[in-house]
Amino acid sequence: MFKFQLAQTVRDELSGFEGYIDNIVEHLYGCTRYCVTPPMRDGLIQDSIMFDEPQLSLVAEATFNPYPHPEKLIELGAYVVDPIRAITGVAMARAIYINGCSRIMIQLQGVHHQEFLAVWAEEESLYHSKNVVGDIKYAVNKEKKPIKKSGGPMSGPSSKR
Q1: What's the whole-number average pLDDT of the chain?
Q2: Residue at 123 is within a domain
């Protein structure tokens, strides 16, 4: 589980930057990062900044309830296929958002010798191809069911907040 939760207010101990957590990213090799969004100023949404977990301290509990964390469908380290873009690669990170969406960062394999090229894709659109890291012996989307759109930040009940 994460040290901080979505919608909690946190402060970066180094810069003093303060805001609420609107997404959390867990990386394959243990780094957890939080996207912190400050309050609106003069009616304008301010830029968010990503911080490593050890830099942050809790300021206040959430003042509203975010959507529940989406079900984890892809294990980090798995070799995945994105049928929409016709790409394959390794699932290196998973981001969960305050609106209930989740995305996987895929490090592409064998693309014009660009070893570290990566893209983000909706978790529900991916399926496991084979195991790369860890002990993954199943495929999530074996039937290759039709892909369900996650919506995005302005759909569903969260847009009425």
Answers
A1: 82
A2: yes
pLDDT, mean of residues 53-64: 95
Q: How many domains does the chain have?
A: 2
Give the residues across from 93 on adjacent strands: 27, 105
Amino acid at 98: I
Instruction: Return the number of other C-beta atoms located less than 10 Å from residue 130's C-beta.
Output: 12
Decide if 3 is inside a domain.
no
> Where are the strands (E) in 73-143, listed by range?
78-82, 87-97, 102-108, 118-122, 127-131
Q: At which residue do the structure tokens 């991916």 appear?
A: 126
- Rounded CA-CA distance 45/139 in Å is 40
User: Structure tokens of 125?
Assistant: 């659109």
- Separation between Cα atoms, residue 131 and residue 88, nearest integer Å: 12
Inter-CA distances, 61 with 66, 87, 122, 129, Å:
12, 40, 28, 40
Place of tokens 């302005």: 154
- Tell me what pLDDT residue 64 has: 85
Q: What is the pLDDT of residue 144?
A: 46
For residue 55, give its domain range.
9-60
Q: Where are the beta strands (DSSP E) in 7-161?
A: 9-12, 18-27, 32-37, 49-52, 56-60, 78-82, 87-97, 102-108, 118-122, 127-131
The DSSP output letter for 133 is S
